[in-house]
Amino acid sequence: MTEVLIDCASWNCRGLRTLVKIKQVTSRIKNLKAKIVFLQETHMLDSETNRMKRRWPGQIFSAPYSSNSRGVMIMIHKSIPFQVEHVLKDSNGRFLIIQGNLLSTRLNLINIYGPNEDNPNFYSNLFLKISDLQGKCIIAGDLNCALNQQKDKSSGMDNTHNRTRKVIKQFMKELNLSDIWRDQNPTKLQYSCWSGTHKAYSRIDYFLV
């Protein structure tokens, strides 16, 4: 059995509308040496993906919504022997599923940009789709929900997404998905987002594998 180690990155880039922002994002990805990249809030239409393709040596898939909101993208470096079989795009620009094979492994790449509001139905419907997939899953993205109320919010308890949190945790258990960063950092307090409204830091960006 061949073992392949691949650096992955996930980033809510909050818009790729300007050339300056595109250059900043692609430069950062290059410095990270990431080979599979999950981007959220691209604000980039399908007709505009060539602006990224000119700067990325590999495959690019996107599920756009509009030029000023949502949109997710998955980029796979040409050095990764990933054979794509099927692409499922959300018309609302909130998720993108790439099904394929990496050498002898059946693999699903799933990018999520979750709703800001407490919306358990979105995750129920999405995870039902994921449960039908064959093979292993790498789920990445901005869930807009802190899964651990004590450790993932600088303000402590978070009661704003209780129903969403419950649904995500339920499906994580049923599908044997792990919050890989938390598994490796069980007590560490580190955050990925600042909310000016709530004056608090949170970790709402995850890799579930």
Automatic annotation (TrEMBL):
This entry's Enzyme Commission designation comes to 3.1.11.2
Query: Which residues does Mg(2+) bind?
Result: 12, 41, 142, 144
An annotated GO cellular component of this protein is: nucleus
Q: Which GO terms describe its molecular function?
A: DNA-(apurinic or apyrimidinic site) endonuclease activity; double-stranded DNA 3'-5' DNA exonuclease activity; metal ion binding; phosphoric diester hydrolase activity
**Residue(s) at site: Transition state stabilizer:** 144
Top-tier EC class: hydrolase
Can you state which reaction this protein catalyses? Exonucleolytic cleavage in the 3'- to 5'-direction to yield nucleoside 5'-phosphates
Q: Which GO terms describe its biological process?
A: base-excision repair
Q: Which residues form the Endonuclease/exonuclease/phosphatase domain?
A: 9-209
Q: Where is this site: Important for catalytic activity?
A: 205
What keywords does the record list, in alphabetical order?
Answer: DNA damage, DNA repair, Hydrolase, Magnesium, Manganese, Metal-binding
Metal-binding among the record's keywords? yes
Task: Describe cofactor binding as the record notes it.
Answer: Probably binds two magnesium or manganese ions per subunit.
Needed cofactors = Mg(2+); Mn(2+)
Q: Which Pfam families match?
A: Exo_endo_phos
Query: What family does this belong to?
Result: Belongs to the DNA repair enzymes AP/ExoA family.
State the name under which the record lists this protein.
exodeoxyribonuclease III
Origin species: Astatotilapia calliptera (Eastern happy)
